Structure formats: C-alpha cells, structure tokens
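Render this sequence as a predicted structure.
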Amino acid sequence: MVENLHKVVIVGGGAGGLELATKLGDSLGKKNKAHITLIDSKKTHVWKPLLHEIAAGSLNADKDELDYLAQAHWHHFNFRLGRMDTIDREKKEISLEPYHDSEGAQIIPRRNFAYDTLVIAVGSTINDFGIKGAKEHAIALDTPQQAERFHQKLHNAILRAQTQADAILPGQLEVVIVGAGATGVELAAELHKATREMTAYGLDKINPDRDISISLIEASDRLLPALPSRMSQSVEKELRKLKVNLYIGERVTEVSNKGIRTHKGRYINSALVVWAAGIKAPSFLRNLNLSINTINQIKVLSTLQSKDDQSIFALGDCAACPQKPGSKSMVPPRAQSAHQQASLLIKSIKKIILQKDATLPTYTYKDYGSLVNLGTYSTVGNLMGSLTGGSMFVEGLIARFMYLMLYQMHLWALHGPTMVTLRLVAKFITRRTEAHVKLH
C-alpha cells in the first residue's frame, strides 16, 4: 500500500532532481520500498547547458527533450505536473497551484501532496537586478521555451531583412548579449556560426559579416569572471577573431525595445537582447517560511537539510550550501554541483528509509574544473582536483571531447549505457540528412 510507504517528493525536474528521481525509482521505487514522486511545472526536460544551442538554432529541442511521464514509467516513479507554492510543515504536505493551458483554461485543480521526505530542486532563474526595461524587453535563457522564443525572433528578423524593400536598419540584425559568463560567451560563438548557416540557405541578400552584428556586455573587468583568467584570455582571443563586439567593464542601466544603454553612456541599437547576467533562486521560495539568503536560496546544512526542518532537503542552484562543513564559502551554481549533491542524497534517502538512520553523510564540494565551448571554433577548459592532481589548462579537440562527454554522462545517469549508445548512432546517421541549423 502506498499509504504505508515512505513518501519522497522531489520538486523540480532539472538535472539534479531528475537524476535523483530516476536513481531512487530504480532502487527504492522498483522494490516497493518507497513511493517516489517528481513534480515539475513543465512536461519535458532539456539539459540547461544546451539552451544556448536552442536559442541559436543549432539544436532542435524536440529531438533532445525528455518526457517526464515516459521517464517516470520506465524508472518506477510518479510524475505530477504542477508548480508548488506552499508548504504545510506541520502536516508535512505541499500544495500545487492550479494548472492552466496557454489560453488560460484550468486543466488541473489545486492539489496537495503528503511527504515524509521533501527535496526542493527548482534551480535558478536569470537575475535582472531590477534594471529598467530588462524584464520587458530582454529575453532570458532559463527555459527551452525562452530559448525557442529568441530563436524565432532571430529567424524572423533575418527573413524580414531578406525580403524587405528598404535597407537593413541600424540594430535590426544586432544581437546584444548581457553577461559574459559561460552562457553568454557560448551563445555569442554559437550565434556567429548559426547565422552564417541560416543565410547560406538561399538568403542571399544578407551578408553576415556586414549585416549581422553580435555584442557581448560584461560588467566585470574580464570575460568569464568566475573562471580562471587563462580561460578568460583564451575565450576573449577567439571571440575577437570572430569580430564579436566586446564591451568589458560596462554595466547595463536600461533596456528598451530599440536597444540598451550602459553606465558609460553607450547606446547600442538592438531589437534582439538576451539577458544572461546573474542568477537567483525562484521568487516563490520566499513564501515557504524557510530561511533563505538575498538571492532566495534555501539555507541548508552540509547534509543538504534545511536549517529549519530536517525532513526538507534542497540541492542545486536553489540551495545555499557550504562548500564543506563549517565553511563560509557557498557552493557555486554549477551543473557539477547539482550532480554531486544528487548523488549524496541518493545515499542519504536510502539510509533514512532502509536503515532508519538519521545520521547522514555531509557534502563537500569537489571542483573538477570548467569547460567552455565555442562551438566549432574552440573549446577551452581548466581541469582541477582529483582529475589531475592539480590544475591543468586544456583546449582544442581534447577539451571539445570532454565537453561533449558531459552531456553523455547526464544521459547515462538517466537512461543507462545501451540507450546512450543507440542514441549516438542514430544521431550520427540522421545528421548526414538534416540541415545543421533550425530553419523554422
């Protein structure tokens, strides 16, 4: 009986939450040792580091998305569609707000779910820092829907320029990316390649080198401010080769439907503004009566338990977790952090359920380095920790291979080796018969 089983509810189907639900389903769920439920506000999952490729049109989201219901069926957990908005900690129950379709009609009423163990893994969103007009006129890259929206806007702008009788206007084909972290620099390079591939398919009125411009704006004094300076220098060199306009040490103060303005008084005409600067946890976390920090992250112990409630855990970007027990430095919001924390929680939750033991293992962040992919142009990385015994800079084919393997490792955790191998073979075959950029 489900009522007698330990109820694990995971809110958020990003990389960490989905891996956790899959592994717990394959072990506890399959053996009927616990009832595992994953809740997400979307029906499908796309690995977040791929969003810049969707935005550029290099990747078709329909072919790389995972259906939560199918994953749940295959891996012995339940998926429920909805968005959590409240927690009743006394009743150990969460509530999901009513679900509406795109036309506003209610499809699913408000529902409550009881839990014995609750894991919050809702990730992060772009932080626009309250900049005037950013929310209204810039497109963030938090979801596949936003990435697809930008792609459609870019594609329509190119089609309009191809067919209009008048000359191309200033800013009409100018892309401005705010924020030169990994997402921003990867998007800049991917857009350079994708726009050239788009125009090669008969859009002969447009000369990409003359008509399409890409600008990258960063408030810090260098690109990739959170990563080693050598990576920053290498990436800057590559982007300058591509003639990407770099405005370093400039802070955006206003965004309009015609362009952006910086604190130095610079104005850039642009109808295509992407906001990739800063992160914060979702705003609804402020309403859960749990301790949070200034960017809405839930404050957790090194066991990943909320400081306010031992039956509530948080992982990934939405958790303010010390890098090691007693440390004042927090774990950075990176995909490897969420993966490591999910692996720890698999052990912790099994210990709670199978051994009835509340003495849980603690988390220590392991930095395995960073990789930044500039598409076909270059890939650079800095490997650290137990991978190298120190720090090692890598670039070129080796770095590219390692970057590609990151996604395959995520798929391996979700599907296993057989499915990953078959998927790679299928992709190799179909790649020869398809356009290398999305043309619609």
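Summary. The first strand starts at residue 6 and ends at 11. The chain has a mean pLDDT of 90.
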